[in-house]
Amino acid sequence: MEAAGIILLLVLIPFYQFQQLNAVELDTISDSQFLRDGDTLVSTAGVFELGIFRPGNSDNRYLGIWFKNIPSTTVVWVANRDRPVIGTSPVVLQVNDQGILVLNNNNTAIWSANVTRPSQKATAKLHDTGNLVLMDQSKKIIWQSFDYPTDTLLPGMKLGRSFLTNIEWQLSSWKSNQDPNLGEFTWGADTLGYPENKLRVREGPQITFRGGPWSNQRFSGVSTFNSNLTFTYAVVINATEMSFSYSLDESSILSRTTLNSSGQLESWVWVENGTRWQLALSLPRDICDTYNICSGYASCSVDMIQQSCACLDEKRFVPRSQKSWERADWSGGCVRRTPLDCKNGSEGFIKYSNIKLPDTENTWFNMSMNLKDCQAKCLKNCSCMAYANPDISLGGRGCLLWFNDLFDIREYSVGNGGQDIFIRMASSELGNTIFCCFILVTCFQTIESNMKKKGGAKVKIILPVTIVGVLLIGLILTWLVCARRRKQAGGKSLHENNEDIQLPLFSFSTIATATASFSDKNVLGEGGFGPVYKGYLDEGVEIAVKRLSKTSSQGVDEFKNEVNSISKLQHRNLVKLLGCCIEGDERLLIYEYMPNKSLDSFIFDKTESMTLDWTKRFSIIKGIARGLLYLHHDSRLRIIHRDLKVSNILLDQDMNPKISDFGIARSFGGNETQANTHRVVGTYGYMAPEYALDGVFSIKSDVFSFGVLVLEIVSGKKNRGFIHPEHDHNLIGHAWSVYTEGRSIELIDETLAKSYSPTEVIRSIQVGLLCVQQNAGDRPNMSSVIMMLSGESALPDPKQPAFFMDKDFLVADFSSSTYPAGSVSDLTVTEVDCR
């Protein structure tokens, strides 16, 4: 074989165990060098090395680059990712007689460098940046691996496009952890519209995440790194290229950014003197990072409790479909309350701050204009919907105009990212103050002009009087408009609060007869409300009767709340309220009878639990999820249960679950998402941390309780009081431990023996852990939970759960939260009523 003289022989080496006998390490391949089998190409300072690896348990071999001298070997580049070497035959890497780097197997080219200007005297070198380069005799680079990234972006690498070579720099995910072949996800810079170098993650052609435009300081859709390190961005936008790259101010620190097989962008740094990579940033962070999740003129916001969409301004924008909006179906987005009418010429702009600027695919820009000129240009064009400064440095520079509906908007807290945008509005939506000022200025100019024509002697008297008069008229008009709006709002609220409740009323004597005068023999159980009795109506209908106890910590308020909450609800996974009784001091609630009582009587009983196989348990989990979805999204009012637990899950004759006990439930209007209370009521072991500690509750409070329920149903163990012989964690902590160690299946109830689906069990445990994550904003909503339970696609990895505690005390890990550390009983912010 004719060659330029250099051959690198690389043989099969176990992945992450790069052990070589008498291996030679060189930093270049030149004419005078010879590399034996097992030799590796090493960068000058020994930061990176090139060789053959096997991913995981795969028998396929690949040529790749990885960090050298790190215990956790990490591959950053793969050459032959689409053509693995199969078998055990020797692999040869050579610079051939045309100066092209080629990987051969059995004299067949597996991979070659795409050299456009070959050189006969070429040299291969691996730089300490991780860049493998091929140089000609003059040391000019004729090919480099940085132009062909795989799934990893290293400091100095570029994303974007070279307009000279037409090379596009983008990351593409591995197909799986054991397969470096092209996966479903790509990450690159989109060049359409404003050349903002907007970074987009795509799943095939579909955009899943957009980083937002470059503001000369940051990307408006990316907030801060979870690290004390300083990252410096380099953005180039000119006639030859549009690119993005990054570097660390501390160049000695190893870092990388990867696009994993699930479409997640993760930025990592190597912990000094440590043994692991530390995650500095992960994108998308939450549901609000999902591309265009809220559609037009709506923004997604996430706080400690809730992730949801809202119209940009509820005074000026309304959902396109209110019914869909209340079901958390945001696909229709929002529309202007008052349509634009460019003909009258009196339209203006409203400023919205701290948002990720909308998608800029259909935009116009001019970097030499100021904000005032930008406003004037937008106002003259009836198709212009909004404007903004694309460059926020030096007080703002440039003009960016949008000509279509505004979408893919996210709202940030002050100082945590985002920019200002000015959105076009009808004159009537600009506010009465602006309207009055407009009238005032117009009148002032007219009067002043007329007075000057007649002589200026009377101007000093008439003009001030006129101005004061016009101002008073404006104030009166403003007051009248506001009063009218308050009256309309009050009338609506009054109407809603006085709707008739269609619920049958039973006489006390009828219920006393049905329960044999509330005989002890008919007692089914007792809760915080009072005892529950079984009864029979004259028609032979079995009923369950809850009787408010005179010693109960609950009272008339809870009684009314349950009647008002559940009387309007109709769902197969909610217990049905048949009627009530109010006579004297007696308060009775009459329900359909559940012959199999409550769920806790099965899963926590060694004998009864054997009758509840995995198929039925999984069906119960999904049934509870459907009931919660109805409460949170599909009912007329959003219902927060606040006391979801196994004893409040009743089972009918077919073992179908029904959520019961709505005594402390709270209902929200369509636009409400969370509330605070100074009287926390609920049950230890099921209460979410933000509720137990700060009295803040939302649908995510119920999601947390549901997560605990799932873990209890799978394991047959109670969260509170759980004791494991090897540690002092509660059930949540134990579930987290076995999950992180890859032993989730050990959590399964031992009474199930082998009669279960391992896939369904592991998926259920992972869903349960996703629901009990510390930050409420990280928890999924119930629609996502149902899809996760029913699907087969990969699930996101849960973060550490909220309560990682000893046997009898709920102690949260608040190392990254605003809550004070300690147990619930140590706090005095709220009054905890345990049930």
Strand arrangement across the biggest beta sheet: 27-26-34-30-35-32-33-31
Oligomer: single chain
How can the largest sheet be summarized?
Answer: 8 strands, mixed
Based on DSSP secondary structure assignment, what is the total number of beta strands? 48
CATH architecture identity of the largest domain: Orthogonal Bundle
Task: Tell me what the structure shows.
The chain is an alpha+beta fold. It has six domains: 1-148, Orthogonal Prism (Agglutinin, subunit A), CATH 2.90.10; 149-285, no CATH class; 289-429, no CATH class; 432-497; 508-592, 2-Layer Sandwich (Phosphorylase Kinase, domain 1); 600-834, Transferase(Phosphotransferase), domain 1, CATH 1.10.510.10. Strands 27-26-34-30-35-32-33-31 form an eight-stranded mixed sheet, with helices on one face. The longest helix has 39 residues, at 459-497. It is flat. Residues 1-22, 432-442, 485-501, 669-673 and 804-835 have low confidence and may be disordered.
Notable characteristics:
disordered N terminus; 6 domains; flat; 8-stranded mixed β-sheet; disordered C terminus; alpha+beta; 835 residues; 21% helix
Give the helix/strand layout:
Blueprint: E1 6-10, E2 25-26, E3 28-29, E4 40-42, E5 48-53, E6 62-67, E7 75-78, E8 91-95, E9 101-105, E10 108-112, E11 123-126, E12 132-135, E13 141-144, E14 152-153, E15 159-162, E16 168-169, E17 171-176, E18 179-190, E19 198-203, E20 206-210, E21 231-237, E22 241-248, E23 255-259, E24 265-270, E25 277-283, E26 298-302, E27 307-311, E28 317-319, H1 322-326, E29 334-336, E30 348-356, E31 363-366, H2 371-380, E32 386-388, E33 399-402, E34 409-411, E35 419-425, H3 432-454, H4 459-497, H5 508-514, E36 523-526, E37 531-536, E38 542-547, H6 556-566, E39 577-583, E40 586-592, H7 600-603, H8 614-634, E41 638-640, E42 649-651, E43 657-659, E44 666-668, E45 674-676, E46 679-682, H9 689-694, E47 696-698, H10 699-715, H11 731-740, H12 758-771, H13 782-790, E48 831-834
Parallel strand pairs: 2-4, 26-34, 46-48
Antiparallel strand pairs: 1-8, 3-11, 4-5, 5-6, 6-7, 8-9, 9-10, 11-12, 12-13, 14-23, 15-16, 15-22, 17-18, 18-19, 19-20, 21-22, 23-24, 24-25, 26-27, 28-29, 30-34, 30-35, 31-33, 32-33, 32-35, 36-37, 37-38, 38-40, 39-40, 41-44, 42-43, 45-47
Helix pairs in contact: 3-4, 8-10, 8-13, 10-12
